[in-house]
Amino acid sequence: MSATKMGGRTGFARRGGFTLLELLVAIGVIGVLIAILAPALRGTRQAALETVALANVRSVGQVMQLYSGQHGRHPFRGPGEYPASMAELFPDFRPEPDVAMYAWYPSGVLIGTTGHFEQAWLWPSIVMPLEEWPEHWETWVSPRKDRPLPTADDFAMSDDNPIRDQISVRYSNAFVARPEFFGDRRGASPDSWVRLLRATRPSDVRFPSGKVMLWDDDLAYRAGAPAERVEGSLDADTPMAFADGHGAVKNPRAAGDAYDNPLAEARMKKLANTAGGVHGRDY
């Protein structure tokens, strides 16, 4: 402080600045504001990433519709079928009648499986040429999920399946089997099931605006703990694309009933195993 003359009196002129007490109060107020605003900011970021995920599944839905328009059926690979490129390179090749073959990235990798409903994640092999994978890969992976393009090293022998979880966007089982498969007309014999593992056509879908074709099955962008699953189905707001091309964010647990699918890992998973298949509706 410095002494000054003020109206005949001697006083003290105070320098500008904060006292320690004022500084502590200001820090406390800022801390309270951060505590209040942080959840809102996290929610805003999650909402933005959810919008990206919704755009992703809608983009895949457009690719599916383009494929259906060209081929007259929804994307499908049946038992004993293999990529056209294999027929060109190996004209005498014939897989086992119960094995479906898929070309995978990188070029030269082939996947053979007897799991018919593995098409839920193998769909890129059906609809997208390998040379276009680098361009579209990020739209198949949930935002913030760290899954780069596959490499040959991903296919090292192991007891688990290291490539199933690479693709986030899942394709409904309902589109790769006849509607009767998802109802009481299926029959009890596995032999009767096989004849129903057939492609579906766009005209088979009775409720296009109510039947989900695709959804983000990872929700990797969610803050906090991963979404809970009930019988394989996510119990959280999920970006999804419908058979008519529109997108929405809905909770799969609120979808219509699933029909027991003995050939799927998650037998009662909603959206995947909709009762009535493409004749049924999810919302």
Overall radius of gyration: 28 Å
The helix-and-strand class reads alpha+beta
User: How many DSSP E strands?
Assistant: 10
Percent range for helical residues?
Answer: 25-40%
Number of domains: 1
Give the CA-based shape: globular
Helix-strand topology string: EEHHEEHHEHEEEEE
Distance between the termini: 75 Å
How would you characterize this protein structure?
This protein has one domain (41-279). The protein is built from 5 helices and 10 strands. It has helices at residues 20-71, 84-89, 119-127, 133-136, 190-194, and strands spanning 2-6, 9-13, 100-104, 109-113, 169-171, 212-216, 229-230, 233-234, 238-242, 247-250. It has a 4-stranded antiparallel beta sheet with strand order 5-6-9-10. Strands 1-2 form a two-stranded antiparallel sheet. 29% of the residues are buried. Residues 1-8 have low confidence and may be disordered.
Task: Give short descriptive properties of this protein.
283 residues; globular; alpha+beta; 27% helix; single chain; four-stranded antiparallel beta sheet
Quick take:
This protein has 283 residues and is α+β, with helices and mostly antiparallel strands. The chain has five helices and ten strands, in the order ββααββααβαβββββ.
How is this fold's topology laid out?
Blueprint: E1 2-6, E2 9-13, H1 20-71, H2 84-89, E3 100-104, E4 109-113, H3 119-127, H4 133-136, E5 169-171, H5 190-194, E6 212-216, E7 229-230, E8 233-234, E9 238-242, E10 247-250
Antiparallel strand pairs: 1-2, 3-4, 5-6, 6-9, 7-8, 9-10
